[in-house]
Amino acid sequence: MATQPAQPAPGPPYDWARLVGHSLEQNGPWVTWEKLVEARRAYPDDMLLRGYAEIVRTTIVRDLLANPRGLQATPKLTPEFLSDFDRFNLTAQEGYLISLIDGRITIEMLLKLTPFDNFTTLFNLAKLQNQRAITVPS
Amino acid sequence: MTRITTLLDNLSMAIAVVDENGAISYRNRCFDEAFGSGADEWIVRNARAVAGERGWLQSFFMDEDPEHSIDIEFNGRTYHVERIPSSGDAKEIALSFEDVTRQREAEQAKSDFTSMIVHDLRGPLSGIQGTLEFVLSQETARLDSLYEELLREASRESERMMSLINELLDFSKIESGNFDVGHDPVPIAALLKRSVHSMQSVATRDAIHLISGHGIDLPLLSGSEEKITQAVINLVSNALKFTPRNGVISIGAQVLRDQDGPRSVVVTVTDSGMGIKAEELTKLFEKYKQTKNKSLRGGGGTGLGLYIVKQIVEAHGGHVSIASIGGVGTSMVIDIPVRRAA
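^ inputs. structure came back:
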């Protein structure tokens, strides 16, 4: 058995810190996240870019958990989703998650019920909230 | 010329001029006194690769770094060999041999002493920590609230002291060159799960959400499970110091692939803390360097935690980077190659 040395991270093609910071201020975390997903496709080996993407994802999850009830908050489906769910282009993970939401189950219980890692579940909940498929009343 | 030869012969440092085959064209008196008649054969032997290893003399001809230097052993003594800069014929180089036997012995003694002290400190401290944890795990209703708070404070401080001691111990190992990570299979998914679990109580106590964001389908790494665990825990401990209450610390892992399959695993430890200034970022992995940000949990550190992380990651053939945005957060990214069949 042998290991292959990791490729050193290439130098950043852009000043990610400035670009991401500026985008967060101007556009908020979700637009910034979408831009970072595109950038990551273009520069898959840029480790700094991965770091900045993780900072934005973590900010999004922090905002979800800033709900005064935290993990005890109970997500609810929105009337908009119930009346027109075809409009929402959900991924398989998001679809599974939303199938568990019944208006009584807390975020903490969702974390236990889903097979995904906790961060993915929280991030998907934040995404559903941002798309107005669910609300998380405080 | 005679004056220069006389001058060189009166130096207290051994000097020789050799070619890439090990033939000595000049040696001063100190060189003869130090190495005697066995020197010629010894030098020639080290101009070649020995058992697949580069001979020390060979390294001077093959290494383009003009400041390349090396410690060598001869007849039980240690010599520090350096190239003497010259603009002459590149086929020959002048080398100085400084006897550093006593200096290296003193360094080793210092390193051994540090290891012994920190080991001796760690023993009783483990006992104190265990006792505090036992008392605190009892029915808290039975503890007077003032005593409970004092015990919790003592527990926090003993944890901090243990962390400082462990950092000193690792630093001592790194500095003594006794830092071999081996080639054992390392199940990274289980390692990350355990790391999160072991830090969860500290995060909960400080009202911080410590969240794992990695699947179980991660390839094996090669090296030391203990050392990689320590690197991850150092990163999480660092994040805990600078993340405010109700903040989030996430631990993620992704696999990078190439045409031959998984190439490396990228582990990220990201916090929603105060961020680090750009001018400080590049220096954070140096010895004794700390961010100017004030720890939110009180107490300082040795400034060795991130230096140790870098040494561990690089010893595994990996690379460490840091991304940060002021007022938003910081992400430490470590990229470690996977174990592949030869």
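Residues 101-137 of chain B form the longest helix (37 residues). The radius of gyration of chain B is 26 Å.
thumbs up if we can close this ticket
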